[in-house]
Each structure stands twice: as structure tokens, then as C-alpha cells.
Amino acid sequence: MTRDATEFLVDLPLFAGPFRLLADLLIEQRIDVCDVPVGRITDGFLQQGLTRIDGWPLEDATWFLAVCAVLLELKVGRLLPRPTPQGEEDLLGGATPDLVYARGLELAAFRRVATELAQRMEAAGLLVPRTAGPPPEYVHLYPDVMDRVSMEDLQRVAARLLAPAADLDLSHVTPIRVSLAEALDAVEARLTVRQDARFRDLLDGCDQRIQVVVRFLALLELYREGKVELSQASVFGDIQVRWQGSTPDGPQPPPEQRAERIAGLGGNDEPRSMGMTSQEDVE
Questions:
Q1: Taking the C-alpha atoms of 16, 17, 19 and 23 in order, what is their torsion angle to the nearest 10 degrees?
Q2: Hey, how many other C-beta atoms are within 10 angstroms of the C-beta on 260?
Q3: What pLDDT does residue 277 have?
Q4: Which of the residues 24, 161, 220, 278 has an alpha carbon 20 to 30 A from that of 263?
């Protein structure tokens, strides 16, 4: 475009003047192309072109489109990540020359082993087992495997193999007579009377360690149901238990239904852990 009344002018915060001068500055990288809104310039060119269509020749419009394409290419090149320069380690695959030399030695060793294995396999292929029996004149030399076996021996072995297994003696195993349903009833009964208590206060009547464990599991089940609130000030400290449920007025479900309700205690509904119990409580 010539520098006359028909010349395309741009008015940007960074530059105001002829677009040809702006294009020269951008191509010479005197102005950052990322700071120039190419879309805004194109809209201005179209608006002025509609009003001055008779004064702009085809060469000027073609030049404008070519320059805009160059600017877009420069802008895309600036926005895309640039590859980092490759050094000696990058050309070697990210490995140092010493490591490459060591890998070369290992490769040579593998080649020698592969050659040795191929030779041994080829030699082993020539080894054919003998499938024919001895000549007829030597058949009598084979020992008779049933020579010393009698009917009594077979009967004794069969009786030993077919005899029923002996009953397993479990007299040394102590039976567990504590149920989780009973522990739930005991803990609820105590907490409905005493709304705020410590865990050690709920262990009255527990003279065995398994009873303490079952009482703790019952407490976790009540916490999962939202009937109690637990807090523990420190590790291995006293667990404070606060009753959040309502006082039961009607009859309670039997222990069998209670056991079915808590059967999934070890699944996805496992209660959230509130820390460890006191060592004194467990012992």
C-alpha cells in the first residue's frame, strides 16, 4: 500500500501508524509478535476495506494476507514449547560415555554366551536315547520287582492307606464364649445410664483379654452407627466415649439379628479408626 490517504493505519496500545511499518518491525523482531493482536488488525482491515474497496488494489490486499500469515506463523512459533538444545549425553541417549562403554562390554559378553549355548544345543541334538530293549538272551537278567512282595504286605499297605483319618484333638484350644452382639448390648446399657464415660469404665466384668477386644469392637460398631462420639487426647491415652443415641424405650432386637447386622464389620463399611486403645486396657 502506498503512503497516501488509502494506506491502512493501525491504532494499538503498543504502536500507532502504518501497518507496513508495523509489519517490518515485527519481522525484524524489534517488537514482540505476542504483544500484537493479529485478529484485531484483521478486523480493522476488513472494516476499512469495505469502505475503501475502490481505492485498494488487489496487490495490496494480497500483501496484507501474506504478512498476516507470516505474523501468525511467528506467533505460533513463540507460543509452542521450544526444544531444549541437545548435549553430548542427549546424543548418546541420556547416558554418559562410561556407561555406554560398560553396556558395550555387557553386550559382548552376552554374544559370547549366546554362541556357547548355541554350540551346546547343537551337540545335545545329536544325543538320541536308546529305546530298544536288551537282546533276548539277557532278558532273564532283569530283576523281578514282585519277587519279595506277598499278599500280606499288600493287605497291610492297603489297610493303612484306606484307614479313616484320626479325629483332630482340639482340647488344647480355648473356646471363645464372647459374642459381639452381647458386647453391644452391654455397652449400650452402660452408656444409656452414663452418657459420658471412659473406655476403661465400660470394661467392668471383663477378666480376659478377648473380652476387652470384643468390647472395643462393639464400641467401633456404635461409632459407625453414629450412636457414640469418640475422642482420644494422645496415643495410648484414655478414650472418651459420649453417648449420642436415644435411650431405648421399647424391646431390643434379639442377639441373632444383632449378629446379622454387624456381620459386615470387615467390609467397606468398616468403622473409621480412632487410634489405638490403651495398652493398660488391652493387657
A1: -70
A2: 11
A3: 45
A4: 278
H-run or E-run covering 197:
strand 196-198
Radius of gyration of the chain (CA): 46
In whole angstroms, give the CA distance from residue 208 to residue 148. 61
Please name which of 278, 281, 192, 279 lies closest in space to residue 242, comparing C-alpha atoms.
Answer: 192
| For the chain, percent of residues with pLDDT exceeding 70 | 75
Q: 113-141 in b/e burial notation, b at 16+ Cβ within 10 A? A: eeeeeeeeeeeeeeeeeeeeeeeeeeeee
State the Cα–Cα distance between residues 32 and 25, nearest whole angstrom.
9
3-state secondary structure string across 120-131: HHHHHCCCCCCC
SS3 86: coil
Which phi and psi angles does 54 have, rounded to 5°?
A: -75, -25
> In angstroms, rounded to a whole number, what is the distance separating the alpha carbons of residues 71 and 22?
11
Q: 3-class SS at 261?
A: helix
Q: What Å distances lie between residue 50 and 90, 96, 220, 256, CA to CA?
A: 55, 64, 79, 89
Task: Give the span between the Cα atoms of 113 and 34, in whole angstroms.
Answer: 60
Q: Are strands 228-232 and 9-11 parallel, antiparallel or unpaired?
A: unpaired
- Alpha-helix runs per DSSP H in 194-254: 209-224
Query: Strand pairing partners for 11?
Result: 16
Give tens-digit pLDDT for 6-39. 567 777 777 777 777 778 777 777 777 777 777 7
Q: What is the mean pLDDT of residues 69-88?
A: 69
Q: Which residue has 490486499 as its cell numbers?
A: 61
Higher pLDDT, 142 or 164: 164
